[in-house]
Structures are given as structure tokens and as C-alpha cells.
């Protein structure tokens, strides 16, 4: 089997997950984050969906496997440091990406991501000889992550753009 055919996602059980391409927190000033964050955990305590968790280095990071970001701004309001942009700014430049392990791409009908997408950024295009294929409208995608935790094959990631 060639290296290109190896499913590396299964190997992640034995290795650390790469989280550097995922957004840290909404509205955070990423350039100053590690310098100013004291790792106090106030953002973790205040998150109503409980998706903010300490990462490997102890800094808070959103974990979309636990749920979605509602963009409530409570993490920013709870933070005692000047880490966050005003709520009037975009929360982040992050979008959903659907990988090839998606059931629909494997010719199995599944629409769980589209059903959970509140802004209706994920639609399904009918295709001849296969099941409807997911498509993401990048202009509508907020990067909330609602589609991530409901995906049965973990084929969706939220990636900083």
C-alpha cells in the first residue's frame, strides 16, 4: 500500500492531534494571545456550550467535537486581560472543510451536517449515479462548528482561513 493510500486519520489515536490550524477563541487577538493570556480559565468557566478547553500548552482553545460556538461573547467578557476584539468585529476567519472520509463522498446517504447547519451554509447537490454531495457556501459559513460534532465519520473540520 502506498503512502498516499494510508488513512492517517486512524493514526491520530497514537499521535497528538494537530490543532494549530483551528481557531483558538472567537474575537481573540491571535498575535498577542500567548503573551497576554494568563491561563486563568475564566473563558472556560463562562462558555455556555462548554466547548472551550485547555489545550496541550494550557491555553484555551475551542474543541468543536464537544459542540458549537454560539458567538455569545461571554468568553471575551469574562477575560480579565485585553485579549479580545470588540464584538462588532468578525468573530474569526474560519470555515468548515469537508474531507474525503465524508459518508456522502463514499456513496452513503448522510445529511447530518446540513441538518445541523443553522445558517444553511451546507447544502446537498444531486449527482447522477451517487448520493447527493455536500457543498459549503463559504460566504454563509460562520465557522460555528455545529456540523463537526454531528458528523459520524469526523470528516468535517473548522479551519482558520
Automatic annotation (TrEMBL):
In terms of InterPro entries, this protein maps to: 4Fe4S_Fe-S-bd, 4Fe4S_Fe_S_CS, NapF, PSI_iron-sulfur_center
Localization per Swiss-Prot or TrEMBL = Cytoplasm
4Fe-4S ferredoxin-type domain sequence ranges: 28-57, 58-89, 132-161
- A Pfam family in this protein? Fer4
Tell me which UniProt keywords the record has, alphabetically: 4Fe-4S, Cytoplasm, Iron, Iron-sulfur, Metal-binding, Repeat
Q: Where is it mainly found?
A: cytoplasm
Q: What cofactor is needed? A: [4Fe-4S] cluster
Which residues bind [4Fe-4S] cluster 3 per the record? 141, 144, 147, 151
Record Gene3D superfamilies = 3.30.70.20
* UniProt binding sites for [4Fe-4S] cluster 2: 69, 72, 75, 79
Q: Which residues form a coiled coil?
A: none
Q: In which residues is [4Fe-4S] cluster 1 bound?
A: 37, 40, 43, 47
Q: What does this protein do?
A: Could be involved in the maturation of NapA, the catalytic subunit of the periplasmic nitrate reductase, before its export into the periplasm.
Assembly and binders: Interacts with the cytoplasmic NapA precursor.
Q: Which family does it belong to?
A: Belongs to the NapF family.
> Would you tell me the protein name for this molecule?
Ferredoxin-type protein NapF
Q: Which organism is it from?
A: Oceanisphaera ostreae
Organism lineage reads as: Bacteria, Pseudomonadati, Pseudomonadota, Gammaproteobacteria, Aeromonadales
